[in-house]
What we know:
Layout: E1 5-14, E2 24-34, E3 41-45, H1 52-59, E4 67-72, E5 75-76, H2 82-91, E6 92-95, H3 110-119, H4 126-139, H5 144-147, H6 157-170, E7 175-179, H7 187-204, E8 207-212, H8 215-221, E9 224-229, E10 232-238, H9 239-244, H10 249-256, E11 283-284, E12 310-314, E13 317-319, E14 329-330, H11 335-340
Helix pairs in contact: 3-6, 4-6, 6-7
This protein binds iron/sulfur cluster.
Amino acid sequence: MTALLEARNVTKVFGAGLLSAGETVALRDFSLAISGEQPSVTAIVGESGSGKTTLVRLLLGLAAPTSGQVLFRGKELTTLTGDDRRRFLKDVQAIFQDPFEVFNPFYKVDHVLALPIENFGLAASKRERRELMESALSAVGLRPEETLGRYPHQLSGGQRQRIMVARAVLLRPRLIIADEPVSMVDASLRATILNSLLTLNRDLGISIVYITHDLTTAFQISEDIIVLYRGAVAEAGAVGLVVQTPEHPYTRLLVGSIPAPDPAAAWQGERVLGRGSGAARLIPTGPSFCAFHDRCPHAMPICVEQAPPLFQTDPTRVAACYLARDSPVVAPEQMTRILAGTRP
Ligand code: SF4
């Protein structure tokens, strides 16, 4: 069955220009397919420099891969025109980190909701337009009478972000790509916004790709998870397996970094060599090696000779680590099949 949106062996290299000091790989041989039939919630987790932003830009057609393909309903995304392009713009919606940037402070918030209705001809009258806006706001838990008619600065950050979710819902998309949607709102509102996304998934059958640096919220809302490190998949699979019994040393580091609710409890993280946490550097093109070798307490000679392939350590999990080298090797594009196995 043709996927709604698919990244197939996608690599993105930056810095190939005349004035650049050298090329760096932002994303390496990445594959993922989102079904148009079976709604899913997939989390993509990584720190700054892991390739998350590049991946979002590729999936939205805002950048072209250096190699590989991004396909919408089987057609190359960057070459879509006419009705195909229009269908993509309707079926795939994005929600970004900073909702304030999307609002024009001189317009009431009604404006951001009215625009897609007009652009896609969704309402035949003002009354119909108002009904559509009200129903989208209600779908994300906002009261229309307390939201419409206000200016952006009169609403909280959480309300503004939920309006962006409502805006995405208006078009009845098949997929929402949510790029760090709760990183700029108060902790108290995070659950509300994430629950809005989950409701859309369950009630309206909208798939969610949730991009985040936060393993905790990824665990709360997703079915499957992909952990990226310096542009490559470190570990991927069913979220319960990956978070509760991580196999890749980087995933173990992330899990160990989650603050324990009990202040008396010992910190569970692994000892990590080299640099501390923080922005991961992109890796240059050229000889391949495990991107985590300079921080890994288990590094072996083979880790700097060749990048580890994906080892399938469980029917619903892969890990790119030589510690799992007794397990069968799978091609990156097989990850899609393995992730699909995590869904009911
Ligand atoms: Fe560590 Fe080697 Fe595994 Fe990389 S492949 S995470 S360096 S053990």
